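testing teh design pipeline on a random one, pls ignore if ur not involved
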């Protein structure tokens, strides 16, 4: 369970935007990481230009195909643009040049959920929207990056997310992001489900029968 104290402390900071009771939205990376408590960051520096990025195992996530069926791919910001760390970023395209190929849909690996999700928008004239959904596909929270370049956005939800969507809000629809960061955790077992109750019963039965 995420420590409540960390979230309460951050309310006093200027980096937390006033949002619904479902989540906290951060525009400051340091505050986001401190509140999350354990994010893993992907900088994309191990990828080469136009390398497809279908999944990030270290972050426990998979990218759904873009509108043409391809995976998002790596981009070198030295060709044009600003990067947050290094020069390699991730773009919503599989080749150089316009147009963009729609939103990036990101799915948590089976059995895991995103307790926190953030990234840097480095798309220049494009602002982006980050939206998180729970296991029942209910909206947790949605927030738009500022017009700064680069601009950070991060969300910590009151419940874990199993799906995230990053989409262009304005500009030419072609965007790049950098330093995706996720705090992922195993989905808690639902003891009210028949399967969960069966596992708990078998565990208790084993403990009763184990030789002392």
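output:
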């Amino acid at each position: 369970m995420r420590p409540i104290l960390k979230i309460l402390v951050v309310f006093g900071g200027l980096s937390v935007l006033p949002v619904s009771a479902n989540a906290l939205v951060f525009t400051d990376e340091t505050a986001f990481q401190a509140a999350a408590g354990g994010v893993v960051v992907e900088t994309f520096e191990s990828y080469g230009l136009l390398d497809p990025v279908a999944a990030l195992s270290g972050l426990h996530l998979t990218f759904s195909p873009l509108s043409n069926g391809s995976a998002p791919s790596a981009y070198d910001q030295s060709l044009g643009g600003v990067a947050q760390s290094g020069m390699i970023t991730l773009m919503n395209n599989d080749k150089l040049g316009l147009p963009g190929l729609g939103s990036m849909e990101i799915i948590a690996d089976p059995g895991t959920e995103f307790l926190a999700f953030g990234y840097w928008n480095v798309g220049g004239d494009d602002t982006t929207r980050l939206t998180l959904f729970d296991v029942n596909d209910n909206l947790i929270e949605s927030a738009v990056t500022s017009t700064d370049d680069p601009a950070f956005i991060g969300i910590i939800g009151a419940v874990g997310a199993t799906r995230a969507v990053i989409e262009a809000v304005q500009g030419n629809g072609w965007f790049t992001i950098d330093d995706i960061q996720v705090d992922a955790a195993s989905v808690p077992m639902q003891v009210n489900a028949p399967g969960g109750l069966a596992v708990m019963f078998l565990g208790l039965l084993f403990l009763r029968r184990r030789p002392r």
